[in-house]
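Researcher: I'd like a structural prediction for the single chain below. Treat it as a standalone chain; there are no partners to consider.
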Amino acid sequence: MIYTRVYETKILKLADGRIIHFSLQGRNNDNIGTNRNTFTAKICTMEEYKNNAQAFMNDPDPNIYIEIKSRKSSRRDYGKYLIRMLRHAYTYERFIKKWNIMETHVKSIIMYDPQKEIFEDPSKFDIRDWIFHTGTVSYRPNYEYIKICSEQDLIDKINSNRNIQIYIGKDRKNIPY
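Model: Treating it as a single chain, here is the predicted structure.
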């Protein structure tokens, strides 16, 4: 059975009354969400957040499981967990003192040809075209981490309609540069 795993949740209260819900999650059948650089963020009003949590708590099917911090739970439990996390929400100033926040940006795609390495711009990268021309392909993304310096900068990055991933880490010595 495939189910969602919620590794970590952080709530950030913005100055204008809205909140940002950071979520580090994946599935039980893969390793997505296990790295600190794959937080997803969603900006919503307090009312939208509470309605979302209430929708989880009102779910009639008790057989759908969500694993919260290595404990199997129902969707109802996840709704209660979201409400509890709202009570422990951070202001931006308190959040920045405790954690580093950086945008995980794909700088380039490194493709390995049997003869050489080729660096590609991610916007021009099309895996299907590459396989068609070479027959085989091996590639990996080349990341860069861009420090988020202000509350407005964080809001702009989330609202930019790009699929961004966010690194949130405690240890200032181990910033992944």
